[in-house]
Amino acid sequence: MLEELRITGLGVIEDATLPLGPGLTVITGETGAGKTMVVTSLNLLFGGRADAGRVRADPGRATVDGRLTLPRHVRAAVESRIADAGAEVDDDGTLLMSRTLTAEGRSRAHVGGRTVPVSLLTEVGERVFALHGQSDQLRLLRPAEQRAALDRYAGPEHEKLLGQFTELYTRWRAVEDDLADRRANARQRTQEAELLRLGLDEISRVDPQPGEDELLREEAQRLEHVEGLRTAAQLAHVALSGTGDGEDVPDVLGLIATARRTLEAQTGVDRVLGELAARLDEVATLAGDVSTELGTYLASLDADPGRLQEIYERRAALRALTRKYAEDVDGVVAWADRARTRLAELDTSDELLDELDRERQRLHGEVADLAAVLSAARQEAAGRFAADVTVELAGLAMPHARIEVVVVPKPAGSGPTIPTASGVDSGVGPDGGDDIELRLLPHPGAPAQPLQKGASGGELSRVMLAIEVVFAGAGGPPTLVFDEVDSGVGGTAAVEIGKRLARLAREHQVLVVTHLPQVAAFADRHLVVAKDTSGAVTTSGVRVVEHTDRARELARMLAGLPDSDLGIAHAEELLSVADREKTRA
After folding, report:
1. What is the distance between the alpha carbons of residues 497 and 194, in angstroms, rounded to a whole number?
2. From CA 240, how far away is CA 292, in angstroms rounded?
3. Contact of 375 with 427, CB cutoff 8 Å
4. What is the pLDDT of residues 102-155, one digit of tens each?
């Protein structure tokens, strides 16, 4: 649930805070006062597209802040996702979200006090927020949206079945495309494979090992400078150990031993000299180790011209490979690995083509079978969906209207097809082999017409609301926002829409931007967006109206006469009727 929304620097709104809460909240105001900016801010907060043209010139930055309380059924999933981004829910269980947009078009998002990608706002929004406006009504006219609506209504098991079908369809199409490509491009594939085999043969004859070029370089350098290395090591060894060509040479180890004995002799007088003597003992040990290792090193040095020649030849062979295939030996090894993988992809042997063809036929049969199961599930859900929406339409002052949900096979076109039970091929896509069409019978005797042809603006608004009420019974996001979905509606139908929204608000937080007093009367909280043109710049603010102020706002909406006693009396009567209906429902 969205507890509070703060908007600064967006459109006509300079700085406004909307206190929100459970139940039904309506937002009203004069045309141009900024109601649209409230909806725009909600869309921004939950990751919607940013329009820099909405940002006020002063201060040149718009910010939308929201405080949410996460319901139990989505809290664990949301907390897990935002934790991946380093954010967290506050100790009191609320989540702070923010979106900032500059006049230059730069956008930043924050969740739980951490900077996050805007996509994270979208992910959170998908779980907690749904916006329905007149553009959503237009989306409902598209067949793909109608199919998605039916699949959503059918429930989680159906959506799981749809996911399985999509995965199977993707595998089938991948095998189909692979087989077609191998057959159509057999000559090019064979030529490419031959070149790869030649390269692999050349590399396998040399058999390069990872890091071999660097090891050979180091070994060659030692052999090329063996005499200089031997002289340096010998001089150092003599200096440390005193062993030379029969001569008595002063050595480091002997001098250290003399110094240690001299200091130890004075330990009884001053313990500091004793500590220094102990440290000289450590120095002697280290020097002895170095002397021993130098001796070993000298024994290992061997001027081997034959070995040096072998290294030169090996490095020349490796350089021949690196000139053709990569910058270094490791790159050549990697090229060979990629070439072996590519060879498998280029295979156009009859055996492989036959195997792929069998796999294609098997998957095609499974797709057809699962498409039939999916279609049967949609047929069953279509009847229930149509019945439930029709019941809701009866409560929205369309007592004689009826909704039909028609499930028909996709027409077979240039794309993939599957056989149907009737023996006629139908088209198929990743969402199955069905086309879905919502049809409206506005009154008895009228022919059923597709929504895009048979529904007026007011009827489409009510169909949309009826569908949302049906969806709400199956769960869905906890916060629903309706942006003037009552457009084109009035009279009794408007009262019925108010009733349905109030009923919807029992299980959801419902925010409604409306111009109808009949709808606004059913609100649990009434917010008014008011324009202030007293200064040089037009600004808008938001305030909560109650009691007399609320009746005055309804009177303004009814007749444009907020100060009329008759208008206020009419508004108070409307409020009383709404209270009775809410109690009775």
Report:
1. 72
2. 10
3. no
4. 988 899 999 988 899 998 998 888 888 887 776 666 667 788 888 988 998 898
What would the DSSP string read from start to end of 196-244? HHHHHHHHHHH---TTHHHHHHHHHHHHHTHHHHHHHHHHHHHHHH---
> Which two tokens mark 506?
């029992």
How do strand 525-532 and strand 539-544 relate by DSSP bridges? Answer: antiparallel
Residue 452 token pair: 């895009």
DSSP 81-120: HHHHTT----TTSEEEEEEEEETTS-EEEEETTEEE-HHH
Q: Is the peptide bond before 59 cis (omega within 30 degrees of 0)?
A: yes
How many angstroms separate the CA atoms of 61 and 1, rounded?
Answer: 27
Q: What is the CA radius of gyration of the chain?
A: 40
- Cβ density class 152-165: b for 16+ within 10 Å, e for less: bbbeeebeebbeeb
Distances (CA, A) of 129 to 69, 477, 491, 511: 12, 5, 30, 11
pLDDT band, very low/low/confident/very high, at 536 (cuts 50, 70, 90): very low
Is-above-0.85 flag for pTM?
no
Beta bridge partners of 481: 131, 511
Strand 434-441: give its sheet, edge to edge.
Answer: 402-409, 434-441, 449-450
Record the tokens describing residue 329, joined without a space: 């030996």
Amino acid at 247: E
Could you tell me if 376 and 157 are in contact, meaning their C-beta atoms sit under 8 angstroms apart?
Answer: no
Structure tokens at 227: 């005499």
Cα 53 to Cα 10: distance, rounded to the nearest angstrom:
9
**Count of C-beta atoms within a 10 Å radius of residue 583:** 7
